[in-house]
């Protein structure tokens, strides 16, 4: 039996206890409702991708690249039925071009909206610290060029090619560090800072404890 302390009648205490017991249940209902509120639109959006016909294709976020260029990589056109698989493949195709840092494809009613973030464009490429190898020789090894899309992956691959070129020339300790200068109009300068290091070579060959080797064998090695 509940004591009628603190000036509250027993009836009010019973009501308070009932409300307290119902609180976890109501909280559970609220959590369940919130969960369905979050997941339902995602499921609905997935179903929508298979229903209706594409009316128009809208490209947003492009600066240098024309909308028709973006649309040329798509596997669907206005008048086609919505198809989730083709939309997904179109997204992957746009990424594979190397033109964009980010791409998203969404549906707004019967319209398809493609939002893109363009990769910067290489403005200029310079080399610093190279003495043993001429700049022309280094440029033959790299793939990036002025007025082409800039990606960190391409620059990294070019660094590896130039390091290998230095190794073939006997400079195994050569190091190359790319630096970037951001410019207006989404452009970037690329600078390859090179530490060539000394030339590595064979100073001498010493044979120790080789009883089966004859003097003639040594002379052959010496004259090679």
From TrEMBL:
Q: Show the stretches that span the lipid bilayer.
A: none
InterPro entries per UniProt? BamA/TamA_POTRA, POTRA
Which Gene3D superfamilies does the entry link to? membrane protein fhac
Cite the POTRA domain residue spans from the record.
52-119, 120-197
PROSITE patterns from the UniProt entry = POTRA
Output the superkingdom of the source species.
Bacteria
Give the location in the cell.
Answer: Membrane
Keywords assigned by UniProt? Answer: Membrane, Signal
Q: Which residues form the signal peptide?
A: 1-32
List the coiled-coil residues.
none
A GO CC term attached to the entry? outer membrane
The protein, known as: POTRA domain-containing protein
């Amino acid at each position: 039996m509940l004591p009628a302390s603190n000036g509250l009648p027993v009836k009010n205490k019973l009501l308070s206890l009932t409300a307290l017991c119902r609180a976890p249940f109501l909280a559970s209902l609220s959590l369940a409702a919130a969960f369905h509120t979050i997941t339902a639109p995602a499921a609905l959006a997935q179903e929508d991708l298979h229903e209706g016909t594409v009316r128009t294709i809208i490209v947003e976020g492009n600066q240098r690249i024309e909308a028709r260029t973006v649309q040329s990589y798509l596997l669907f056109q206005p008048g086609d039925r919505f198809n989730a698989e083709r939309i997904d493949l179109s997204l992957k195709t746009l990424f594979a071009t190397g033109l964009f840092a980010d791409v998203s494809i969404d549906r707004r009613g019967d319209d398809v909206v493609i939002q893109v973030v363009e990769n910067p464009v290489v403005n200029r490429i310079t080399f610093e610290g190279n003495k043993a190898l001429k700049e022309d020789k280094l440029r033959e090894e790299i793939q990036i060029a002025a007025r082409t899309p800039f990606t960190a992956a391409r620059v990294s691959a070019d660094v590896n090619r130039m390091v290998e070129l230095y190794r073939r020339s006997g400079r195994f300790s050569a190091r190359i560090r790319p630096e970037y200068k951001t410019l207006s109009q989404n452009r970037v300068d690329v600078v390859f800072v090179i530490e060539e290091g000394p030339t590595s070579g064979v100073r001498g060959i010493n044979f120790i404890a080789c009883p089966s080797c004859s003097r003639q064998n040594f002379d052959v090695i010496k004259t090679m």
